[in-house]
Design a protein that fits this description.
Keywords: Hydrolase, Metal-binding, Transferase, Zinc. The protein contains six helices and twelve strands. The protein has about 220 residues and is α/β, with parallel strands linked by helices.
């Protein structure tokens, strides 16, 4: 089993996407992105069959991967029970959530809409249906509550469903604490977790859409 959270450094992309951008949809050169994906796959392990990416839409659709493909299924959670297949979730402020067990692993895209749409529980449900009993979560880098300012309307929508998401910026404006809300969801499902949190907005070693707008994507990658 292997897990990794990539950062900006180590790739071939230029300009706003420098340098290990893994997303094809942000305006970067496709050849550079494909080379970056090869670099990321090599870093994960030599026994890898392939890395499956997804077309993320902030929903709760879960796709079970039995064979990696260049086609990116529309989903916000990928699951596989096949050793050697790696799963990737791309982010630039949302949470890359990796779930591991003896029989299956998952890569989950958890942003504010993912929290509202309950994508984490959707992924856990499918993993349990596949026979996973002892699941551990790994929470990767995302935007912190100090930096994630939102409107009153969005604040109310999310905080009503996830009270621990309620936060304030240093200027006392409405903000969301996505990691705190996710930890509460995991605890409610009796899932132990490893926290590798780092603020994407504050760290220049990470891509941040909120900070830069035109930028690349890092990824959380996991294989059984």
């Amino acid at each position: 089993m292997s897990t990794r959270f990539t950062k900006r450094a180590g790739g071939v992309s230029q300009g706003e996407f420098a340098s290990l951008n893994l997303a094809l949809h942000v305006g970067d050169r496709a050849d550079d992105v494909r080379r970056n994906r090869e670099i990321a796959a090599t870093d994960i392990g030599a026994d890898l069959v392939g890395v499956q990416y997804m077309n993320q839409v902030h929903g709760n659709r879960v796709v079970i991967v039995e064979e990696p493909s260049d086609e990116e299924p529309t989903a916000d959670a990928l699951i596989t029970g096949i050793p050697g297949i790696a799963l990737a979730v791309m982010v630039a402020d949302c949470i890359p959530l990796l779930l591991k067990s003896d029989v299956a692993v998952a890569a989950v895209h958890v942003g504010r809409r993912g929290l509202v749409n309950d994508v984490t529980r959707s992924a856990l449900h499918v993993m349990r249906e596949m026979g996973a009993e002892h699941i551990t979560a790994i929470i990767g880098p995302s935007i912190c509550s100090r930096c994630y300012e939102v409107s009153e309307e969005i604040f109310s929508e999310v905080a009503t469903l996830h009270p621990l998401a309620a936060s304030r910026t240093e200027r006392n404006t409405p903000a969301l604490d996505l990691p705190a809300a996710l930890r509460a969801v995991l605890e409610s499902e009796s899932i132990s977790f490893i926290d590798e949190f780092e603020c994407t907005f504050e760290s220049l070693s990470l891509f941040s859409y909120r900070r830069d707008a035109i930028t690349g994507r890092q990824a959380g990658i996991i294989s059984l």
